[in-house]
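Researcher: Last one for today. Full complex below.
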Amino acid sequence: MRAVTWHGRHDVRVDSVPDPEIVNPRDAIIKVTATAICGSDLHLYDGYIPGMRAGDILGHENMGEVVEVGAKSTLKKGQRVVIPFTISCGSCFFCSKLQFSACDNSNPAETADPSEIAYGHSMGGAFGYAHLTGGYAGGQAEYLRVPYSDVGPIIIPDGLEDDEVLFLSDILPTGWQAAVNCDIEPGDTVAVWGCGPVGLFAIQSALVLGAHRVIAIDHYPRRLELAKSMGAEILNYEEVDVREALNEMTGGIGPDACIDAVGMESHGLSIDNLIDTAKAHTFLGTDRPHALRQAILACRKGGRVSIPGVYGGMADKFPIGALMEKGLTVKSGQTHVQKFGKQLLEMIGEGKLDTTFMISHRASLEDGPAMYRHWHDEQNDYTKIVLKPQMAKGDVKETRELADVSF
Amino acid sequence: MARAPERPSIMDSHSAQRAVLGAGALLATVGAAFFFATRSKNDPNERLISDAPKWTLRDKPKGKKGALIGRSVTINLPRQEVYARWRDFTRFPDFMDNVRSVEKLDERRTKWTIEAPAGKTVELLTETTHDVPGERIAWRSVEGSQITTAGEALFSNAPPGRGTVVQLVMTYVPPAGTLGKLIAKVFQREPNIQARRDLRRFKQLLETGEVTVNASPSARKSESPTEARI
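Model: Here's the assembly. Have a good evening.
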């Protein structure tokens, strides 16, 4: 089969690779019909995530048709399913508490050591995201092996298009969890840093969850326009001093809740050998949490800071004093996708959530490498890219409505 | 206050030193006394007060080679069931790296065939020295074993509703010479890595019914989609 693979910094290719096979009884194999490129895939593209190996298949936002099932799978051939990016066993302590991204069993023994050494405990498994998360192949390919297929996959009923439900795999529940973690109360103003796909879903979710007002911060005009279309007031940080603006817009108190949907900055992590370096001197302080620092300083006293943005290592000059003295509550974490799947699918079916508005481009797997380059270099025009294995090479569909937008 | 009588313990430095004298010498019986810290290595009169198990001590008790290693895991099943699953030694190859087969020789003695580099195998012969159902299984290597080791598995209740804590405690003394180097490679330079991985897989097997494996495709010609990879 053909698959989008990582070969080094800024080096993504399409290779012919073996098809996946059933290995454990609870496995299933899906034929991929749609797979998206994530903002966190850019960290892999930029070479900032340790543990990637040349030849790894990328892709953790996947959906498709069940074509093969293991002896203990509950899926049936022909079902259309969306696959959560988190691989979760369903029966460990963490899965039982619905903390699915913390699954104790999905990271194999061979790969669990590095994250245990770096973070104190090993991370749960995920698709297509380096060996920290288990070294599983991703789904930017024609077929995907899905472990614990009785726990993860969301079965999609007829009547919903692929594009409407694809983001149940990651970014929609991520934005949703970010908003849930704000513990929104009536009258609340929620500020969101980052108008990428996760930020946009966080804005939408915050309003659905009852926020009185959402203020969104970014600098790409197209992304700010999308945020505005979702009902947010917008701030371009190249135009205004964000903290002063937020204070003045909230009558001096500051936002009640702040969402950091930006995550680790450019410099990221520079680790060659995972285990040795992690053991030698736990990660060097190279994450640059500009947005998070700002969010902590901007948040009102006693307010809430919600961190869906991905971080990997240590942060310099972290305003722990402001956090403590203002009595902030911080909630964070990789998304517990399986916790929200059913509820969000229902809301999509009832038209309560708009899930396709941000898709700017659709292309074949063969155009994957070019799409990665555009996703990285032209973030104003490329707001979300969906790859479809059945599309032909060169057939890139751009959503013209977005291109015509002007203020 | 009366002191508990001194019992030879796997971590007592004198016993470990006796063990390395002479090839294949036995280690002393593993005693439950090592479970709790009692004495500081440097000052025999100084009593250590921490409640943590001995293998977490900063000054790890050890002889010339056989350091004490220990590792705990919590498994979401009742204690008797977890004990029973461990008790069936013949299933160890299901979740232990390098263990090719386990054969019961008689009620107390077991033969282990361990994979070594370059397609070789080494034989470990052990006898079970203690078996308290639901609580403890202890073993040590016997005469004729190519590897000298001793260890025990301890089973206790986790906090209510959380299942069972399994603690694997062991040490080994590799024989001298090239065979010793081979054995060291088999057990890796840090046997606690082995214990950690084996316990992790035991937990996966009991909680999920499977040993977790990341076997899946890649563009690397040396790999197959049905084999686990590091």
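DSSP finds 14 helices and 19 strands in chain A. Chain A touches chain B through 47 residues (CB under 8 Å).
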